[in-house]
Design brief:
Strand order of the largest sheet of chain A: 3-2-1-4-11-10-5-6-9-7-8
Distance between the termini of chain A: 40 Å
CATH topology of the largest domain in chain A: Isopropylmalate Dehydrogenase
Radius of gyration of chain A: 20 Å
Order of helices and strands of chain A: EHEHEHHEHEEHEHEHEHHEEHH
CATH class of the largest domain in chain A: Alpha Beta
Largest sheet of chain A: 11 strands, mixed
Shape of chain A: globular
Oligomer: homodimer
CATH superfamily of the largest domain in chain A: Isopropylmalate Dehydrogenase
Number of domains of chain A: 2
């Protein structure tokens, strides 16, 4: 008997740049690694049936429609009721799955999850929480892209939900919460940041004040709160910088024959570093504030990122993330 | 006779975390490197006089007040008329210097420059332009922190002024201008980004559309336009990431005796890379949109950054940056 509780994740077999191949490979590896994981594989009949037949703890849910990356999210969700994204969210709503994961269109997955799974009572805006690699322990970024325009009270809720995520799913007992700003003083920054500061100061446990861009890689906070515009710019910039700097190092390492020899010696250490900086190592970002678990993956997810996403999903299910977020919201929210 | 025109820069001897030592060292090195550079060294009598006596092409301008890093900018500028920052800006206003540089309080330098040097007719908001290192040619970021809250028409002017800077001071003949956003499509992003897109599309030469965070390190555009909040977060994040990743590499290189040997072989290549990524290598950011040149340096500027700042200042003076920005603004701006 497995010692950990069963977790059932519905997986969008059609989502992501390398679907369905990378998704299937990732699911196979996640199932092998976690004997208490069950997968409902959602997608085209010919894709999901053969795989489910060949793998234990995997059930096929055949769908006939796919939402493409370029489609208008809300329209696609309404117009394609038998798409893998819509059906996957419905499995969560109906209690057949504990969570849903897609590496497909982020906009469509957010729209479907919000519409079908629904928001926790009192949540004004669900937000995406992404775990960033830092010099210290990982840092949860909320919102990393769901809400381009925010009000101060949205940011205050992001702080509460982000802290609940850090506690529940990352095991950080007393998360330090920072507000992303362009100066340390409360009077610095945009109107939004200044007003959010006052709200967080007044009512957010663990709030340590403003943090700046340079504090994030240093890992000075466990949760960083910002609007989805700034958060998304930051997330993509970090990805770009990691990629760019690793490429620059590689060029430096290969710039002469003697360097190449030295580089060969260093390879294992540098590979370990690359893995640590790899955005694939975390794999999935939950949409916080919904009445069920929905996880969004990077469009470029490879098998490793997919497997990692399912691991993140199982942890969130077993830790009771959704219930803990609902419990963390103050009575005035609900 | 020097073949390049004389450039006279007023330098705040009191500004920056390592002032006056780092400033004086940087000025000495800049004067030695550029025989057509003249410096008006502004600061405490005992500091500036001895240095000016000992160095050619350097004149002392003694002041009695200093604006500290923590002071309220506008109040400090009004309350300390004999501070090095206020006097330095006055030297530009009076035509005694072609430009002013300070590594002191960015807020105070901006406030003093805007108040004393004044805006070019039609400029709504002066903006800070910072040159970012990328995988390709450098990229000009406007605004990197002067205006936390912006309107779409401000961003449109930032694009015009940033392109003029890239052309004049960086020698990029036809700068590609991108709008920082969280998706490629015109309908993506915040209200501000969507409205700015339409303005840029309609009237900004060289506009290539939206760019995302990951495009900046890749160097896909020559000028990236955003509000000063997002820009400042981005700038400080890039600094933090470079520092963090270089530290991680160093740890990897030192993790075993055999690695250390390999690292010693690679040292020259890695040092060259570090220099290229070093924010000190550019050294100063001009405040675009003023009726004279004002350059702001990083508070942590060392001698190398100060020398580099004076080089950037001299290039901007000789290239006629201020006139070229004035000429680039459309009649409806003026």
């Amino acid at each position: 008997m497995a010692s950990v509780p069963l977790a059932t994740i519905a997986v969008d077999a059609m989502g992501g740049d390398f679907a369905p191949g990378a998704v299937l490979e990732g699911v196979a590896s996640a199932l092998a690694a976690d004997p208490s994981l069950r997968v409902l594989l959602v997608g085209g009949l010919e894709i999901v049936e053969a795989f489910a037949t060949a793998h234990e703890r995997c059930e096929a849910v055949a769908t006939t429609q796919v939402i493409g990356m370029g489609e208008h999210s809300a329209a696609a969700v309404r117009g394609k009721p038998d798409s893998s994204i819509v059906v996957g969210c419905r499995l969560v709503k109906e209690g057949r799955a504990d969570g849903f994961f897609s590496a497909g269109s982020t906009g469509a997955a957010m729209a479907a999850a919000t519409l079908i799974i629904g928001r926790i009572k009192g949540v004004q805006r669900p937000a995406i929480a992404t775990v960033l690699p830092t010099a210290g322990s990982p840092c949860v970024l909320v919102d990393s892209g769901a809400n381009a325009d925010c009000k101060p009270e949205h940011l205050a809720q992001f702080a509460t939900m982000g802290a609940a995520y850090a506690r529940t799913a990352l095991g950080i007992l007393e998360p330090r919460v920072g507000l992303l700003n362009i100066g340390e003083e409360p009077t610095k920054g945009s109107q939004l940041a200044q007003e959010a500061y006052l709200l967080l100061k007044a009512g957010s446990p663990g709030f340590v004040g403003n943090v700046e861009g340079r504090d994030i890689p240093a890992g000075t906070v466990d949760v960083v709160v910002t609007d989805g515009f700034t958060g998304n710019v930051m997330l993509k910039l970090m990805e770009g910088m990691s990629k760019h700097l690793l490429a620059e190092f590689k060029t430096a390492l290969m710039s002469s024959p003697v360097n190449k020899v030295a580089a060969a010696i260093l390879k294992p250490s540098l590979d370990a570093l690359r893995d640590r900086l790899d955005p694939d190592s975390h794999g999935a970002a939950p949409l916080l504030g919904l009445n069920g678990l929905a996880l969004i993956g990077h469009g470029s997810s490879g098998p490793r990122a997919i497997a990692s996403a399912l691991r993140v999903g199982a942890v969130a299910v077993r830790a009771g993330l959704v219930g803990s977020i609902a419990a963390s919201l103050t009575p005035e929210d609900a």
